[in-house]
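Design job #97: recover the sequence.
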């Protein structure tokens, strides 16, 4: 996972090709670190992600709620995988978290 800090309050986390129980702690640690540093806008970039375990979405939703309370937001960007997109659609994740395509 790569973290890019863009400005004083915005960061992007580039997720790996698979988000599962093995690398889930790294995602949690990354989100927590950014939150503790005071970031209010966090984007999770799914460009390379081909699979995410459904159970890992709970932490993403939790951080979305924490950032929202702070006046910020968590956004999912660049979902390229049909499998991941189908999961998000099936769970109606877009009703909770903004999902955007930012790549041209």
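Job complete. Output follows.
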């Amino acid at each position: 996972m790569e973290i890019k800090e863009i400005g004083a309050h915005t960061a992007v986390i580039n997720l790996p090709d698979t988000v599962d129980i093995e690398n889930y702690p790294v995602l949690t640690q990354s989100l927590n670190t950014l939150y503790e540093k005071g970031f209010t806008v966090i984007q999770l970039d799914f460009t390379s992600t081909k699979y995410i375990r459904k159970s890992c979405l709970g932490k993403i939703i939790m951080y979305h709620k924490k950032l929202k309370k702070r006046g910020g937001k968590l956004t999912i960007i660049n979902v390229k995988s049909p499998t991941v997109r189908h999961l998000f659609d099936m769970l109606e994740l877009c009703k909770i978290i903004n999902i955007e395509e930012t790549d041209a």
